[in-house]
Amino acid sequence: MSTVKEALKSSFVKMDPRVQAKKPVMLVTWLGALLVTVICVLHVVQGQSFGFELQLALWLWFTVLFANFSEALAEGRGKAQAEAMKKTRAQTVARRLENGKEQTVPSQSLNKGDVVLCETGDIIPGDGEIIEGIAIVDESAITGESAPVVREAGGDRSAVTGGTRVISDRILVKITATSGNSFLDRMINLVEGAKRQKTPNEIALGILLISLTVILILSVVTLKVFADFSAKSAGQDLSNVVSIPVLSALIVCLIPTTIGGLLSAIGISGMDRLIRKNVIAKSGRAVEAAGDIDVLMLDKTGTITLGNRMATEFVAAPGISVNHLAEVSQLASMSDETPEGRSIVVLAKELYALRAQSFHPQQAHFVPFSAHTRMSGVDIEGNPKRELRKGAADSIRKYIESKGGKFPSEVQSAVDSIAKKGGTPLVVCEDEKVLGVIYLKDVVKGGIKERFAELRKMGIRTVMVTGDNELTAAAIAAEAGVDDYMAQATPEMKLMRIRQEQSQGRLVAMTGDGTNDAPALAQADVGVAMNTGTQAAREAGNMVDLDSNPTKLIEIVEAGKQLLMTRGALTTFSISNDIAKYFAIIPAMFGGLYAVGSVKGPLQALNVMQLSSPQSAVLSAVIFNALIIVALIPLALKGVPYRALGANLILRTNILIYGVGGILVPFVGIKLIDMVIVNLGMV
Which residues are catalytic? Predict the structure, then answer.
C-alpha cells in the first residue's frame, strides 16, 4: 500500500511539463488538457455553459495522471530495496592504508587503486580485488543468498563487492571502481529506474508513435476545415460539435496514448523482473538483446550437467570379480575428498555392502591426486605390500608397464566404450595388475532437454562448450539435446566462435566467471558474468548473476523475450484501440450532417453503437481512453504470459488476441460508458 501511495505522489510530480516533454505522445495529451482547461475557465468567466468542457478537461488530466502512475508504480517497486542499499553505502567507513598506516575515511571518498583493510565484522567499502589474504564473506545483502562464500587472493574468486560483510579472517582489497560507478551504485540506479536509458527498440517505437501522432493531429486539424465546408453546404451549424475542446479530445483519443502512457512502465518492469531473479543488467539494451538472442553458448559443467561426476558402475577385467574391484576402488578412494571420490565409496557400499577397512596410520600411506601423475590411491604396508591406484587410463597404463605388467585389451575396450557414452573411465590397479574400470558419469540435469526443445521452438540454437574430448562431448550433447557443441574449448576458440556467429548476423549470449572468459563475455551480445567470478569478468559482461547460477542464462533469455512480447502486445492493442475509437466517434459526431427532416444523415448508418449524441460519444471515448490505461497497468508490470513459440506464431497470436481484442473492447467499453453518462445526465 505504501508503494501505491508513493506512486500517487510521484504521479503529480511528473505532471511537470519538463518531464512530459520526454514522452512526446503524453506531452500532446498534456497540452490538450491544458488547452481545454483554459477554454473551460474562459467559459466560466464569460458566463457560458462549461459542464461538458470541464468533464473533458478532468478526464484528459486523468489520462496524463494515470500514465504517470503506471511509470511511478514500476519505479517504486524497487525503491525500498534501493533505499536499504543507499543506507548501507552511506554508513560504510573504510580503513584505507597509506604508506603502511591505517586511516578511517568514508567509503565514498575512496578512489580507484586505493588499498583497504577488512577484518571480521567489517563491511567491504567498495568493489575490488583481494590482493592479500583469504576470508569468508557474507554476500546476502547483494545476492539474497544466506550461505557465506570464500574469497581469496589470486584465481577466479578474488573479486569482492561493496556492501558485503567479512565474517572471518583478514584481507587487503584493492579498489577497482570509482565512487558512483561501483556495482552497488549501478544496482541502485537500475532498481530505481532513475538513469534508465531508452533502448534502440524503444527509440524506434517512439519514432513510430511520434509519426502516427503527427499524422493524426494533421487529420483532426483538417477535419475542422472539411466539417465547416460540409456544414455550410448543408446549411447546418456544427460549431458546437466540432469545437476546439472536442477536437483536442479527439486528438488525444486517436493518438496512441495507451502505449505512450505504458511504454516506460513496460521497460522498467522488464529490468525489475530480472532484478527479482537476482540478475543485474547494466542497461536496458542488454535486456532487449536477450530477447533477440539467436545462439546460446552454455558451459557444460554446472549448466547442462550437475557438475560433479558420479560413479555409476564397476566394470571388472577378465578373471577379476566385481566385488574385489569394488573393494579395491573403495580403499583407493578413502582419502579422496572430491565428489567423485566420495561417490565411489558410496557406490561400493550400496552395491556390495562394503565398508572401507580401517588401518593404523603407520600402515597406510595415501597418495594424493596430482596433475602430473593423474592418479591417486594408497600404499598399504604388510606382507606383501599393496599398492592400490585409480586414475586416467593412459596414466595407469604407463604405471603398470613401468612395473612390468600388461594393460588388457578388454579393459581398453571398456575405457573406449565408456568414453563414447559420454562418461569418464577411471582404471583401477593393484600393484602391476589391472582390476577393471570405474564408470564416472557426468549427470545431465533433469528437464534440461525439454528446456532446450522450447528454445528450439523459439528459433534459438544452443551450443554446449566443454573442455572434454570429442567423444565425451558428443555423447553428452546428444543426451542433453543441444544443437551443437565445442569440445576441448579454449578461450580463443570461444571468442572465435562468437565472432563467427555474429558475422552471420546472429546475436549470441554466453556465461563466464574467469578472467579468461572476459574477452568472450565482452564480445557476446549478452554476456552474463557470475558474481563469484573475477572483477575482469564482471566488468566485461553486460549482466551479472548474483546467484552465480550458469543455468540462469536460459531464464534471462525468457525474461528478454517476455519484455519484447509485452511491448509488442500492448502496442498492437493500442493501435487497434485507436482504429476502433475512430470508427466509433466520427460517425456519431457527424451522424446529423445532411439530415433532412426525419431522414437521418448518411453517416448515421455507420453509428453501429447508436451512441446518444456527438457530445456523449466524445466524452465516452475520453473516459474509456483514460480508464484503459489503468486497466492495463497490471499487464504492463507483470508482462504477458511467456510461451516458447516462434516469432511468426507469436505475431499471429498477438494480432488475434490483442489486435482483434483491441478493436472489440473499445466498442463495448464506449457503449457502456455512453449509457452510464446519459442515464446520469452528464451530457
Answer: 299
